[in-house]
Amino acid sequence: MSAKAEVLVLGAGIAGCALAHHLVLRNGGPVVVYDPRTPSAGATGRAAGIVTEQLWNRWDVEVTRESKEQYAALADRGDPSAYTVNGFVRWAHQPDAIASLEASIRRLRNWGVQIEELDPVRLAERVPWGRFDEGVRSVFSPTDSIVDPSALNDLFTASARRGGAEFVTGVPMRSLRWSSGAWEAMAGSQPLRGRRLVVAAGAWSKRILEGIDHPLPLAPYRTHAALLRPPSGVASFPSVHDIETDVYARPESNGRVLAGDGTQLVEVDPETVPSGADPTFVSDLAATIEVRFPGWANAELLRAWTGVCTATPDRRPLVGPVPGSDALLVLSGFNGFGVMRAGGVARRLAEWMTSGGGRETERLEPVLPRRFPQGAPPFRPRPGFTVDDGIAPRF
Ligand SMILES: Cc1cc2nc3c(=O)[nH]c(=O)nc-3n(C[C@H](O)[C@H](O)[C@H](O)COP(=O)(O)OP(=O)(O)OC[C@H]3O[C@@H](n4cnc5c(N)ncnc54)[C@H](O)[C@@H]3O)c2cc1C
What we know:
Number of strands: 19
Oligomer: single chain
Bound molecules: flavin-adenine dinucleotide
Largest sheet: 8 strands, mixed
CATH architecture of the largest domain: 3-Layer(bba) Sandwich
Strand content: 25-35%
CATH superfamily of the largest domain: FAD/NAD(P)-binding domain
Radius of gyration: 21 Å
CATH topology of the largest domain: FAD/NAD(P)-binding domain
Order of helices and strands: EHEEHEEHEHEEHEEEEHEEEEHEEEHH
């Protein structure tokens, strides 16, 4: 059997499934989504699911706000447990980090992000198991949320299917090529054809694009997370981020806590990288918790894992047509923020694909792949929950 589509999407993570959802809503022609694994088998199924507007630039804030609206509405209709508003708070003690935080507060206010500064007493009320020294500065965004990324992906997938999208999963890709005016992927023994191809394959996107002679500056890297159970359990609390250690945490069901960072700033191969946590991540996390979150010092470690994310040189995603081919598009390079960006950016890409007009191009301008010269040199990933202004390094 051969599946023929207007659009063939590679990757059933949250980016590819959100795109399929938005394309069918816009009658973007038959859509086929292919994944050699299963939906959410990549980074999506390993993510913490923090969604915050405390971001680097106005474009990111607007996109994430759109995602939040979509996620709230989808969860409301299909799975209320997939979306919870709990707020997000970050803090700093050191002068340099405080200066960055203050600059970030000014920018966030300019972009209309709802934020409050908390004095140490109010911070300790929100985060009673944390330790805050004199001079701590913090910023709280009360409308931020957490999502269950896999549950949300299920909702996007179900909606796309209802709209007619076809999903082909669980069979290896044998080949991918341009043939007789269309892209053709051999999925197991089944040929899949699409007039346009969207590479939304997360950490695997780099190799796929290289394999069809359209390389883009992408670098897969590993990041860690762990599930903890403090002895007394915890009630709901805002997601938190300690700027100096870069450790974050969010509430999980049944009194548990999901905590992470352990981001490794080196490129890896997603096919061969171990999916279990490094022992150093666990010991570093325990050390940070003891100092910064003493109320959780005796927490039981239930599980720890890694996932592979995808960096770009300027920390902005790569979304839109790949230079040199009208029929090839990319939706990747989320630098560890793909859950929060997926809904908003997939809608923008679907709008561009179904209209191709000037306004739609403008809405994607900061993330269009054409911003990079051909043959951009290798670079080191530098993602993270940073509070700097995200200014791109120069080539
Ligand atoms: C520990 C951890 C914590 C995180 N926390 C957050 C967070 O709090 N908030 C946030 O916004 N983001 C977070 N992220 C980042 C987020 O998970 C990713 O940015 C996001 O899931 C990327 O989605 P994706 O669809 O692009 O990629 P993925 O979810 O990785 O999906 C890519 C898919 O492509 C498939 N694929 C591979 N090869 C092929 C092929 N040849 N053809 C077709 N498909 C292929 C894979 O099987 C996979 O299913 C976190 C990530 C990790 C690992």
